[in-house]
Tetratricopeptide repeat protein
Amino acid sequence: MASNLILRKFMTHFIKILFAIFISSVLLACSSTNQVVKNDGGNSRYAAEFKDALTAMQAGDIESAKTALIAITEKAPNYSGPWTNLGIISAGQRQYDQAENYFYQALKCQERNTVAMNWLGYLSSVKKDFSAASNWYSRAIAIDPKYAEAHLNLAMLYEANLNRPKAALDHYRIYQTQTGGKNTLVSAWIRNLEENMNYVATNSEVVR
């Protein structure tokens, strides 16, 4: 039992670290998806400029991208996509308050912007406001049940911070289903959770 608890503590700490790594690794992936601007009505007049800004982000030219995005917001303040990507850039630079402001502005422009919600969930977790983080991820999933990254983030939050292993397991499984089960690390987390839950269930029965 003691060794199992030690393993559990290690896995929880490990997942917390990987949670931050995962968010950082998807910075450019999130910024380049159509989902950022898909439902905000868009602004075809500045579509080319927006595309150029995303290209700069993907190339790692963050300052140029940021300058271009700010210029678009000045000309088209109701365009949700640039605000979202400015938030992603700020989060990547650990300017969390600024990032939060950008994401809220994005939501003012498009209240169904699930990418902004997903990032606000992450920013809430950085502040250790895990209840708010859960709400943001859940809101994103309610709008787009196929938003795999939100399922994964919510699963990790449940696992590492909210002590809800069954809920975590459910969302890990959804993530794996939606992504074709290619993430071997998530597969390992699922097995670990299943083993721990089976262990607890079996030993609870013995105690009774």
Notes: The CA atoms of residues 78 and 109 lie 5 Å apart. The chain has eleven helices and no strands. The mean pLDDT is 81. Residues 1-27+114-208 form a domain with the Serine Threonine Protein Phosphatase 5, Tetratricopeptide repeat fold (CATH 1.25.40.10).
